Amino acid sequence: MSKNNSLVVLTEGAIIVAAAQALSFVPHDLGVSSIQVEYGLIPMAIYALRRGVKPGLMAGFVWGILDLILKGFSSGGFLNPLQGLVEYPLAFAAVGLVGIGSLQVKSRIKDNKSALGLIIMYSALGFLVKYFLHFLAGGIYWGAYAPKTMNPWIYSLVINGGSFIANMIMMLVLLVVLSHVFKRFIIAKD
Q1: Where are the bilayer-spanning segments (predicted)?
Q2: Angle at the Cα of 49 (from 70 to 53), degrees rounded to 5?
Q3: What is the CATH number of the domain that holds 169?
């Protein structure tokens, strides 16, 4: 990769991180529960598909640190350093795993074939790993906040599983709506 191309990838990553963080300030709780739609997952998934797994992981990691600083510390989302590491930089970096499918998706798009199934599959992988990390942290660190009559692990599964499902539904809807512009979003003009 040339220095110029590296700078373009880095600049795109910074813009995507800023967009993802800005979108995190849009209200996103579903009802009275802690199930959340995380709008920043969409630009992050597109970036990972566009640039690959390594830039996707790095952008997600930076987004996690930024979210920890701007929201985690002030909202009570930070309990201790290990929990903070798992739920912010590591969980957010996991979204970059969507980039594992980058080459396959780009190939399908360039061949004028549908990449919808691949995008759904790789998005599900990245989102699932993110919410699995939140599930683990929920069972270990947030168990005291579960309703008294509910097992903390079940509570964490309901909240984080619900968030995973809500975010996959959001991704599916946007994929269907934006299917005609995949090529512009995912194929980079370097």
Answers
A1: 85-103, 115-133, 153-178
A2: 75
A3: 1.10.1760.20
**Bridge partners, 36 (sequence order):** 29
Question: Residue 3 and residue 21: Cα distance in Å, rounded?
Answer: 27
Query: In whole angstroms, what is the distance from residue 83 CA to residue 145 CA?
Result: 15
pLDDT in the model for residue 27: 78
Q: Please give the Cα distance from 163 to 186 (Å, whole number).
A: 25
Rounded CA separation 19/50 (Å): 16
CB of 139 closer than 8 Å to CB of 156: yes
pLDDT at residue 31, rounded to an integer: 63
Confidence of residue 36 (pLDDT cuts 50, 70, 90): confident
CB 90 within 8 A of CB 65: no
Residue type, 1: M
Strand partners of residue 29: 36
Structure tokens at 155: 């509570």
Percent of the chain with pLDDT over 70: 95
Number of independent structural domains in the chain: 1
The predicted model scores a pTM of: 0.92
Query: Of 48, 12, 5, 50, which is closest to residue 187 (Cα–Cα)?
Result: 50
Range of the domain at 179: 3-186
